[in-house]
Amino acid sequence: MKYSHPVINSPKWYWALGLGAIVSLPVQAMDAVSPLPEELFFSEVPVVLSATRLKQSLPDSPASVTVIDRKMIEASGAIELVDLLRLVPGFQVGYDTGSRFTVTSHGNTDRFARDMQVLIDGRSIYDPAFGGITWSNQELDMDDIQRIEVISGPNASTHGSNSFAGVINIITRHPSEQPAIRVKTLVGDGGRRQIYNRFAGSEGNLAYRIALKYDENDGFDNRHDSSDTRWLSLRSDYQINSRDALLFELGGSGGTHEDGFPGDVDQPLRAMDESHAFQQLRWTRSLSPGNEFYLQFYHNYQEIDDSFSNAVIFAPLNVSVGYGFESQRYDLEMQHTYDFNPAQRVVWGLGVRQDQAKGIWTFKRSDWMTRDQYRAFGNFEWRLNDNLLLNLGGMYEKFEQKKGFFSPMAALNLKLDELNTLRLRATSAYRMPTFWEDHADLSIVQTGTMIPLVQLYKTIINLRPEYIESFELGYLGNFQEQGLTLDMKLFHEEVKDIITGVKDLAAPGQFTSYVNNGSFNINGFEIGLRWDPSPRSMLHIGYSSINTYGIRLNKINPVEYRYLLGWAPDLTMSVLASHQFANGIKLSSAYYYMDDFTWSGDGDYVDINRRWDIKISKQFELERADGEISLIFQNIGPDNNFQDYRRDNVWTDRVFLQASLNWH
Asked: Which terminus of the chain has fewer CB atoms gathered within 10 Å of its CB, N or C?
């Protein structure tokens, strides 16, 4: 199926505004700053690896990277991991239910957020069946995160085809850096109850962590969306000798999640069981200084049991519908980093992957569908002189039954002086269709016999990947003596061959099929500021101004198009500030703002969101232990009722009490 569509134009004011802001920055030379030593990679000094897989200081990075470190994590008062991502300029976070979340950059996504790559310790947690991330099922607690590196915009040259709208790289803490025993509990509004227990230790060259957690949540006050989740995780780091090291991680989770709406025949009130598991093994060998190799294997598994009977639709027939499925991923990757000389470095690698999915309800398959993928990637850093740094990268990927494609990246960093850097970047990326988009087959069936009665979804063509081009002009001011980092960028992105669900009005049941049709443009200006005036104080500001426009096919027979104006909020902003007083009390506050906009897919138009959080905490010491007690206020203030993703999801103020104890 191929459909032409009209073209619409965009305004240009934001380009003039953003370019003027960048070029008007002062670029006078200031006191020189000494280079960052490599041993500071795991400290608060901004050294990142997500942009190229090479360890680079922020002035050398070819992409704008937001670093959410331990100081920001603790100050935020966030209960959900996804709330930390509200701090990233240009990001949107939505709650489909009280325990199902969506995170995207620059809009144009539904509750599955298929265009975002998320890594935990180098392991992708992207779901190949429906796409997106099941955030609440991940075996990860805030306490175990060292930092999060976030790239807003495509970065497939480094992290592959689903690094389409951004990359979220979560790096966990080494067990040797954590207290031996930690117990943490949280209780509060919305029926929220958490218990987290962790034991970490070392035996010779072996460091390990065992953690378990129980999380209970009543969800939104006006929704049927309570949940409970239990998980267990294990990590071990073994230093075999001076050159070789092993990392091993595994985890499993399970729970029940409610969903649905009263009187809705397609989404009735119900409860579904969910389970998740993973295993990861990585061997790292240091061949010589600047010459390192690793081999990594991981496996992810997910099962969602979600089906129901309904006698109302075809009374007196009893019919059934289901949205349950199983998915898993096996991935093997080799990577080699090599320094040719002080001016030239390269990282390259090869990978092979098999994704699997099945679902009697969603795919009419009780056996596994498989999709093999092969990839080769490389990133090259070349310091042309003291002021110019060139980064070139690319990844070639070949998926089973799809054409191979190449995602390139080129960036030039111009160092104006020791403190000011300009960055030019161009890249492109692809997003592979999920199993659901490629093989959707969902029907209302007769209960017991499973005879299809009405087709709801059916993919009938071989889809192409979505394609994005991105161009970026950025500025980085790194004023280390003042404890200030300022990152600004002006960008243009164009998405082509959008994979969209199209309803056929002439088909029985008017089922939905997936086709490639439409384009989407994003133009914007983003600012990230981090200021640490003292070791006890911190200020972070994120700001994004975006204009979106586009069009896609919506229905056929007859043909109808949907204009994609306002499919990302025009303005988003976040402010996070914290200070520790001399008496040990820590006070922090976060404010989030998001303009009104329309979530795509099954999301709704939502009004302006304003959220204000406060956290007050105090550390204490006992004879053989130490701990902290915190009071967390979320969504306080006079303007504290806003809609989130769906108009039925109404946020109100919430209060939580959190306490922790550590035995060393």
From this structure: C
DSSP, residue by residue, 473-501: EEEEEEEGGGTEEEEEEEEEEEEES-EEE
Read off the tokens for 334.
Answer: 């080799």
Residue type, 443: S
- State pLDDT tens for residues 433-474: 999 999 999 998 988 888 898 899 999 999 999 999 999 999
What type of residue sits at position 549? Y
Q: Which residues does 321 contact at the CB level (< 8 Å), separation at least 6?
A: 266, 307, 308, 310, 361, 442, 444, 445, 456
- The CB-side HSE value for 107 (13 A sphere, CA atoms) comes to 33
Q: Where are the beta strands (DSSP E) in 416-465?
A: 420-431, 441-446, 452-458
- In angstroms, rounded to a whole number, what is the distance separating the alpha carbons of residues 401 and 380? 30
DSSP per-residue string spanning 545-584: EEEEEEEEEEEETTTEEEE-TTSS-SEEEEEEEEEE-TTS
Q: Which of 119, 123, 102, 100 is nearest to 167 (CA)?
A: 119
In order, the DSSP letters of 146-165 are EEEEEEES--HHHH-TT-SS
Token pair belonging to 98: 């009280």
Question: How far apart are alpha carbons 416 and 421 in whole angstroms?
Answer: 6
Dihedral through CA 161, CA 301, CA 137, CA 154, nearest 10? Answer: 0
**Tens digits of per-residue pLDDT, 488-531?**
999 999 999 999 999 998 888 789 999 999 999 999 999 999 99
Res 436: pLDDT: 96
Neighbouring CB atoms inside 10 A of 414's CB total 12
Dist. CA 331–CA 158, nearest whole Å: 16
Rounded CA-CA distance 120/129 in Å is 19
The length of the chain is 664
Asked if residues 517 and 70 have their Cβ atoms less than 8 Å apart, the reply is no
Please tell me the pTM assigned to this model.
0.91
Buried b (16+ CB within 10 A) or exposed e, 240-252: eeeeebebebbbb
What is the pairing mode between strands 466-479 and 270-288? Answer: unpaired
Amino acid 7: pLDDT: 44
Q: For 121-128, what is the mean pLDDT?
A: 95
Sign, Cα dihedral of 436, 441, 447, 453: positive
Buried b (16+ CB within 10 A) or exposed e, 584-608: eebebbbbbbbbebbbbbebeebee
Rounded CA gap, 441 and 496, in Å?
Answer: 25
Confidence tier at 14 by pLDDT (50, 70, 90) = very low
**Cβ atoms within 10 Å, residue 278:** 22
Q: Please state, in angstroms and rounded to a whole number, the distance separating the CA atoms of residues 655 and 72.
A: 20
Average pLDDT taken over every residue of the chain:
89
At 87 the three-state DSSP class reads helix
Q: Which domains does the chain have, with CATH numbers?
A: 13-364+379-663 (2.40.170.20)
Report yes or no: 149 and 455 within 8 Å, Cβ to Cβ: no
Q: In this predicted model, what pLDDT tens digit does every residue of 31-65 receive, in sequence order?
A: 333 333 333 333 344 688 899 999 999 999 999 99
- The candidate with the shortest Cα–Cα distance to 494, out of 118, 3, 9, 5, is 9
Q: What pLDDT is recorded for position 315? A: 64
Residue 342 has a CB neighbour count (10 Å cut-off) of: 8
